[in-house]
Structures are given as C-alpha cells and as structure tokens.
Fold this protein.
Amino acid sequence: MGIMNRACMDCHSYETRWPVYSRIASVSWWLINNVNDGRDTLNLSEWTQYKSSFATATLGSMAMVVNRGAMPLDSYKKFHPEARLSHEERKIFYDWASAERQRECENTNLNHSHTQ
Ligand code: HEC
C-alpha cells in the first residue's frame, strides 16, 4: 500500500530509511525513540506473524488514527512533507484498512467453521 510505505513504514517496520537529519544527535534520539516505540506498538514487518484477532484489531486502530489525523505524528510530518496525507488520502487509507479488517474477520470466521 503506497500510502503506508510513504507515511508509516519508517516508524512501524524494520525498513526505516534513516534520513540525513538523523545524524544530528538531538534529532536522532527523537527519531530512534519514535521508531522503537512505534515498532513496539505496530511492526508491519512482522504483520504476517500476527494472530488474526490481533491483525483485525490493529487494522481497526490504523483506520482510526489515520482518520483522526493522529498518525503519522505531527512532529514527523515537519521533517517529512511526503508523509503528509491529504483528506482524500486519509479516506483512501481508511477505506482500505476497513476493507482489510472486514476480510480478516471473514477469514477468521471461515477458519472457525472449518474446525467445527
Ligand atoms: C514518527 C514515527 C511514526 C510514524 C511516521 C507513524 N507512527 Fe504510528 N506510532 C508511532 C509511535 C511512537 C506510536 C506509539 C506511541 C503513541 O501511541 O503515540 C505509534 C502508535 C500507532 C498506533 C497505535 C495507536 C493506539 O492508540 O493504539 C497505530 C495504530 C499507528 N501508530 C498507526 C500508524 C499508521 C497507520 C501510520 C501511517 C499512516 C503511522 N502510525 C505513522 C510512531 C509513528
């Protein structure tokens, strides 16, 4: 998902593109902390290992935080104009995450009915 690569991956995956400014000590601490915290909360690199119920819940909060404009963090957007999402993009992301969540829910239900 393009929007996610642009706006989320730096802090929520192992694929952090360390920018030039991260060599400035004070800024780099700020970024490292955010990346560590962000990864603890949500690690998109480990997505496929997430339990279905957790993935469903996470997609729900992803849709929510982007819809509210809470993610990406404001402080990050200052340095990364490319991560700013327009109203339209927030809606695309929201719809995408909601649809994925729905699909994940249905998969879970299917799997359950198989075992019964
Ligand atoms: C600058 C780094 C950074 C970027 C970029 C970023 N996040 Fe986060 N994110 C964090 C940090 C740090 C936390 C954990 C602390 C917090 O909740 O403020 C977090 C928490 C979250 C949470 C959990 C929130 C909760 O209340 O449970 C979700 C979901 C999330 N981010 C989704 C996203 C999505 C989706 C994007 C891209 C559109 C994104 N983040 C971009 C740093 C980032």
About this structure: The chain has a mean pLDDT of 88. Helices lie at 2-7, 9-12, 25-41, 52-68, 74-79, 87-115.
